[in-house]
Structure formats: structure tokens, C-alpha cells
Amino acid sequence: MSEDFNMTMRKFLKQVGVTSQQAIEDAMRTAGAEATAGKEFTARMVLTIDGLDIEHVVTGQIKGRE
Q: Which InterPro entries does this UniProt record tie to the protein (predicted)?
């Protein structure tokens, strides 16, 4: 793959990671420590790309703050 492709993909994935972490932290903060402490939440990220036939799903667990 080209260097330009790699750079744009890495930039996009970094943006996804940073903004997703911020959104999760905001949601946990809004819910409050009592609502999230000791709980485990199932997270699901869906990636689709217009013009390409792709739907990539990643699931995982996120523990609430203690």
C-alpha cells in the first residue's frame, strides 16, 4: 500500500481511538461512580466505509471505575 494510504488510515484510526475514549469517559462520568462502579459494560464498535463493501465489528468489555 502507498505511504499516503498508510498515513491517512493511521490518522483516521488515531482519531477514532481518541474520540471514542473521550466519549466513553464522558458517558461514565455522566452516569456517575455509583452507577458504574464494579460493573462491566459490553462495547461494540462498527466500522463501515462508503463505497466499499465492509462492515467490521469489534466487541469487548469495559469495566466501570472503582
A: DUF6494
Residue 36, number of CB atoms within 10 A of its CB: 19
Domain locations in the chain as residue ranges? 3-63
pLDDT tens-digit profile of 4-41?
A: 999 999 999 999 999 999 999 999 999 998 889 989 99
Q: Which distant-in-sequence residues (6+ apart) come within 8 Å of 56 by Cβ?
A: 46, 47, 48
Give dist(CA 48, CA 41) in Å, integer.
23
pTM: 0.84
In sequence order, what are the beta bridge partners of 56? 47
pLDDT at 65 over 80: no
**CA–CA separation, 25 and 15 (whole Å):** 15
